[in-house]
UniProtKB/TrEMBL annotation:
InterPro entries, per the entry: FHA_dom, SMAD_FHA_dom_sf
Full protein name: FHA domain-containing protein
Pfam families: FHA
UniProt keywords, alphabetically: Phosphoprotein
Annotated Gene3D superfamilies: 2.60.200.20
Organism, as annotated: Actinacidiphila oryziradicis
PROSITE patterns assigned: FHA_DOMAIN
Length: 72
C-alpha cells in the first residue's frame, strides 16, 4: 500500500487537486491533474515529467506561481 500525503498551497492559481507527485523505484514524477492553470517543471508546462534534485516545480504560472524545489 502506498502512503498518501497532501500538500496544501493556499493560492488562487492552484486547483484543489492540482498535481500528483509519484515516487517509484527511486524516481520521482510530477503529473498534472488537468488543472486550470497548469503545472510547470523547470519553466515548461507539463502533463507528466520526471523530476529530481535541482528541479523547480511551479503551480499556476511558470514565472510567479507558488514553487517547490526538489532537494536530495
Amino acid at each position: 500500500m502506498t502512503a498518501v500525503r497532501y500538500i496544501v498551497i493556499d493560492d488562487a492559481r492552484v486547483s484543489w487537486h492540482h498535481a500528483v507527485l509519484h515516487a517509484e523505484a527511486g524516481h520521482w514524477t510530477i503529473e498534472d491533474e488537468d488543472s486550470k492553470n497548469g503545472t510547470y517543471a523547470d519553466r515548461c508546462r507539463v502533463r507528466t515529467r520526471g523530476v529530481g534534485p535541482g528541479s523547480v516545480i511551479r503551480f499556476g504560472n511558470p514565472a510567479s506561481g507558488p514553487r517547490r524545489s526538489c532537494r536530495p
